[in-house]
Amino acid sequence: MKMTLWRITLLRILALIILAVLIYNLFQIQVIEGEEWANVADNNRFRHLVELAPRGRIYSADGVELAASVPTYVVALADVQNKDRREQTITKLAEFLQMEPEIIRDKLKKHRRKFEPAVIATNVDFETILQLEEYQHLMPSLVIQVVPQRYYPEKDLLANPLGRVNEIDRRGVEGLERKWDEYLQGADGFSVVQVNVDNRPVGDAANSTPAVPGNNLHLTIDTKLQKAAQDSLHRVLEKLRTEKKSKDAWAGAVVVLDPNTGKILALVTEPTFDNNHRYDKAWWKDNLPAEMPDWAKKLTDRTYQYRRTVGSTFKMVVGMAGLETGAITATEKIYAGGRTRINNQPVNDYGFAVHGNVDMRRALAVSSNIYFGTVGARLGSEKIYEYIEKFGMSREQKNAGFDDIALDEQSSSLDYRLGRTWVGGNTVQISYGQLNEFTALQLGNYVSMLANGGIHYKPYMVEKISDYTGKTVEYFEPEILDQQNFKPENLKVIREGMQQSAARSQYLKNLPFAVAGKTGSAEHDRSSRKNLERWRDTHSWWVGYAPYDNPEIAIVVFMEYAGAGSRSIEVARDIIDCYFGLEE
Fold this sequence. Notes:
5-stranded antiparallel beta sheet, Beta-lactamase, 18 helices, 7-stranded mixed beta sheet, 2 domains
């Protein structure tokens, strides 16, 4: 009897212990770990999908799409608790994607947002997608998504200014893509889909928020003019290498502005590249000539990120300073006898040509270094730099106020006086365009101010922002940053000198209107390129505007190591022909 009672008591104790364990486990599952197990249950029952928003498009002024978002396939894997199923899926997927299984495991391990599928491969080709769809029953956790990817339909047109987008976080990292990223980025959508035991969707989405595309940029760029300038610059550089023995003439830039608004109509850098392969080394190797030097292959935009000495294109600054301050008059003549010394600085005109007694107009027409060296010596460096600032080219005025693209220090002008012992000979040299360095865009603004009478319009290339429905979000009007009250009679003298200079070129003959322009042959610092002959160590420039009487476009052409400035005029003529419809 006692033994029976003892056994019953023992069973009761065991039952109480078992009940206590069950109650504790139930409490732990329901209360302590309740949220975690609820998430596991939901993750097994629901799939959370993010719908990526298409990035806003970028259009030219004539409606050409320069940056688009195109659909591409992405392969992802949803979180699966069953290790055997997960391993089966990884092994099978690795076969189709021709990828090591360990790479897939590593991506799954690093993926933190378990309620979202982990991206395994992007830009998967359509044939592979078809195969994956066919065998998806063997890979229950497989998710195939269509996501937007950045694409540049015009490839090498405006490649540098457009910039690029980081494929991982889809944010702009260079150029317009970076500067206007907050406008171009859209709002991602989100949906929750219920799935069955095989991880396949069941019914409609339980919750869904559609993606909102980003806003669009509308530029001031004219694609026809951009292409004409780009093709001409490329062709002329190639001709110089093959016909003129200028074997280092690989690079250059073109800037075309509307001098009456500051709109940038064309912005060309040579060499250019397919923007869809910006950092694809294989593409560069296959598409750029093997003989092209490494310095020319750099991705630097030579219109606004690149400073160089500008040669005789600078002489109008000294000319205006001289006339405005009274350091010289329009009719005073200076003897240009081929060579001389000014402030103990040897100065000679091109080819030691003897021009005789020349006034301001004639000095611009024949580009006399002796004349402008003399005027500069009278002015002094401080007054010259004062007029550099008046024309929006000072060190503080990066690219004359252009800020549609994020700029670095390279884009500011170089004040040659900084950190140096200044002597009178240096003042003479800067007077005819040596030593100081500027960007092509700074020169574009400077010649625009000569064309429009002294108004400094802010250069800009983003004219409008619209949403995905086409509604205008923001519109940018021309902005005046400064205005110089140059005396009309002094401007007239400078312009007439530029017109006489342009009239000397064979490339600017037979036009239905007159053109104002000035060449520049700028000597490069030969200390770093001692192996080059002098004639190969010169940059070619041309600045000007057309028509002379009623300016509509201002043009800057720069060709690195291309020789005499007159070689740039051929490109300028092609631009003028395109803009005014004068092509044969």
